[in-house]
Amino acid sequence: MFTKAKIWMWLVIILLVTNISTIISFRYYSQKEARLPAKMESVEVPGEQRTRFFKEQLDLTPDQLVLFREANRNFNREARAVTGEMERLRAELVAEMVRTESDTLRLEQLSALIGEQHKLLKTITYSFFLELKAICSPEQNEQLARIFQSLISDDQNIQLPQRGMRRNGRR
What we know:
mainly alpha; flat
């Protein structure tokens, strides 16, 4: 028959074995993770100096740069309009949510409109990518793909230059 001392002893042994196996597992998986190759490194696309960034990253020729600038201007104009509308809709959504008597039908409508604008922004973004892809050589396309993949992996949007901003961030 087990005495209290034997029960306590077995309980301590079981807990000790559990702790040791946890420590060993933790170290094993930490070392295994450290040996894996790093995922794609993140590339931050600056909003204010996007032209210079892409020119340097892709080593664009002067002719390519002219085409890039035009595509970039179009992208900025279209994306800025959509993000402005999304901000307006989000503000309206929040205003409706905080009302004493929120209209759930209106909240649904606003949510759907925000979703449509978000879809439109993604369409504008991939159109921009495809336009850049058509400008670039196969080697440049590899780097372009890495830049955009980094943006997708980090769930980032391409930063838009602030309206009225010039070089060096001065107005």
